[in-house]
Amino acid sequence: MNKRGFIFDLDGVIVDTAKYHFLAWKKLANDLGIDFTEHQNEQLKGVSRVKSLEKILDWGGISLSEDAFQDQMNKKNTDYLSYIETMKEDEILVDVPKVLDYLKNEKQPLALGSASKNARKILKKVSLYDSFDAIVDGTNVTKAKPDPEVFLKAAEELEIHPEQCVVFEDSIAGVQAANKANMISIGIGEQDVLSEADFVFKDFSEISIDFLTQLINKQ
Ligand code: BG6
Ligand code: MG
């Protein structure tokens, strides 16, 4: 049996938290008098907290002192944490357990590769913390997606060559990171947004066991 490394992004791939990041960023931007659209939000997906705030301030033509910047970062995270506080298994996205269980059964190494510093907390809340052989998150990397660092680190921890890895991502930055790492990129979302991915599915219900088997056996 062939072995591939399967690397999953968290927010918007495993759990429905992308909507909470959106709400928290929108509130922060609007409070600063900056408009915030869904299109701009796509550019923040997968991107670290620091980089996201830098982008928002840039769009609004605002510059902040270091202290004020830190205050805004804390505010955003407090707001975000209030949304995820009561999260449970029911916020795991459709058919994610089906795919995780199948891959696990096939003895495929599984990793989490997320930009979020809250990743471990969220995995525990939805009882998926023990489902991965490796977890690399925002506390383990210095470079934000689209830099491939997070996925290369995950591959290293799984002891699988990057070219043998598959990445599931809902963000443009994440798909670009996977491509830069020479991994197979699978976009979860809209084809027109994630057009750089090798494959795109609306959600995991569209991913068949046949497709996964072919991925495992692909030379
Ligand atoms: C990514 C999200 O997974 O993590 C981004 O797509 C988010 O929206 C980033 O900004 C950082 O997350 P956190 O939880 O560390 O603020
Ligand atoms: Mg994501």
The CATH architecture of the largest domain comes to: 3-Layer(aba) Sandwich
Radius of gyration, in Å, reads 17 Å
Mean pLDDT: 96
Strand order of the largest sheet: 3-2-1-4-5-6
CATH class of the largest domain: Alpha Beta
> What is the SS-derived class?
alpha/beta
Give the CATH topology of the largest domain. Rossmann fold
What string gives the helices and strands in order?
Answer: EHHHHHEHEHEHEEH
What is the CATH H-level superfamily of the largest domain?
A: HAD superfamily/HAD-like
**How many structural units, i.e. domains?**
2
How much of the polypeptide forms β-strand, as a percent range? 5-15%
| Coarse shape | globular
> How much helical structure, as a percent, in the residues?
40-55%
Spell out the blueprint of helices and strands.
Layout lengths: L4 E4 L9 H14 L6 H7 L4 H12 L5 H19 L11 H10 L4 E4 L5 H7 L8 E3 L12 H10 L6 E5 L2 H9 L3 E5 L10 E3 L7 H9 L2
Parallel strand pairs: 1-2, 1-4, 2-3, 4-5, 5-6
The protein binds 6-O-phosphono-beta-D-glucopyranose (BG6) and magnesium ion (MG).
Structural commentary:
With 219 residues, this protein is an alpha/beta fold. It folds into 2 domains: 5-16 and 89-217, HAD superfamily/HAD-like (Rossmann fold, 3-Layer(aba) Sandwich); 18-84, Orthogonal Bundle (DNA polymerase, domain 1), CATH 1.10.150. Helix content is 44%, strand content 11%. The chain has helices at residues 18-31, 38-44, 49-60, 66-84, 96-105, 119-125, 149-158, 172-180, 209-217; strands at 5-8, 110-113, 134-136, 165-169, 184-188, 199-201. It has a 6-stranded parallel beta sheet. Helix 1 packs across helix 4. It is globular and about 55 Å long. The relative contact order is 0.18. The structure holds 6-O-phosphono-beta-D-glucopyranose and magnesium ion (MG). Magnesium ion is lined by residues 9, 11-13, 18, 45-46, 170-171, 174.
